[in-house]
Amino acid sequence: MNLQEHVSYIGGSRIYFLETGEGSPVVLIHGLSGSGRWWRYNIDFLAQFHHVYIIDLVGFGRSRRQRFQLSRAASLLAEWMDQIGIEKAIFIGHSMGGFISIDLAGSYPEKVDRLVLVDVPALPLDRSRAKTAIRLARAVLEMPRPFLPILVSDGWQAGPRTVYAAAHELLHSDISHKIELVRAPTLVVWGDHDWLVPLNIGVRLYDKLPQADFVVIERAGHNPMWDRPELFNPIVEDFLQGRPIQERSGQRQIH
After folding, report:
1. Residues 101-121: pLDDT tens digits?
2. What is the mean pLDDT of the chain?
3. CA 54 → CA 14, 61, 110, distances in Å?
4. Angle between helices 70-84 and 160-171 (to 10 degrees)
5. Which one of 27, 49, 210, 245 has the lowest number of neighbouring Cβ atoms within 10 Å?
6. pLDDT of residue 148
7. Which residue blocks in the chain are alpha helix, DSSP H?
8. What is the pTM of this model?
């Protein structure tokens, strides 16, 4: 895998990103407390067919030590696309990255070709802080052990202030009105053991999207792209190529 490193400067913000592969542009957007490293098991596969861009959101990963603003993230991505010359791209967003991708697709529909939303808290969770903490602890306990050092390292690099501020803004933002504005064909992917953002959120999100498919990956938690890449990768590529999503052991489609 030949990864090229770049930094873009937009309106006082610094965006670090990697790129690899050739073909239609695909942009990978990580979630809260994450970085581009969360796509480790997906980049090589996708780069066989696409020009893949892996972004570290402002405040996280190698774009750290800057103030993160959820409300500004989608417009920053749109400006970043203009700066590097991407007219239209496929966006794959995990968790908070999917939230941002919905905002982008609803606000700048001309820039989004297709959309993949992975375990996205796009609708209000209606829970107390105590319940959120309990679900977070359960989600961490069920994560694959090799993933935990990356989770801890990325959270440490971002810093508690950035993580807390981003989580607070995410939990108190309502993007429901943008979901119905999404015109790009969309694939919703969920882990059936996601204790952080439960499956019923995915069902409600799917029901609100004008044009969508929904696949549940069994024995996967909040990070199905890491937990079960052997299923996640071909499912996503079926969708990106406009093919019917094949039935495979370990997945199920919701209609």
Report:
1. 999 999 999 999 999 999 999
2. 92
3. 14, 11, 21
4. 100
5. 210
6. 86
7. 43-47, 70-84, 96-107, 129-141, 148-158, 160-171, 176-179, 199-208, 224-227, 229-240
8. 0.94
Q: In what order do the strands lie in the sheet with 112-118?
A: 4-10, 13-20, 50-56, 24-29, 89-94, 112-118, 186-191, 212-217, 251-253
- End-to-end, the C-alpha distance of the chain in Å comes to 37
Instruction: Show the domains of the chain with their CATH numbers.
Output: 4-253 (3.40.50.1820)
Amino acid at 71: S
Query: Rounded to whole angstroms, how far apart are CA atoms 233 and 46?
Result: 7
Q: What is the pLDDT of residues 187-201, one digit of tens each?
A: 999 999 998 899 999
Mean of pLDDT values over 170-190? 93
DSSP 8-state code for residue 196: S
How many Å apart are CA 98 and CA 30, to the nearest integer? 8
Q: DSSP letter at 123?
A: S
User: Among residues 251, 123, 142, 93, which one has the least CA distance to residue 198?
Assistant: 123
What pLDDT is recorded for position 136?
Answer: 62
Q: % helix / strand / coil in the chain, to the nearest 5?
A: 45, 20, 35
Return the amino acid letter for 166: A
Q: Diameter of the chain by CA atoms?
A: 47
Residues 6+ apart with CB under 8 A from 137: none
DSSP 146: G
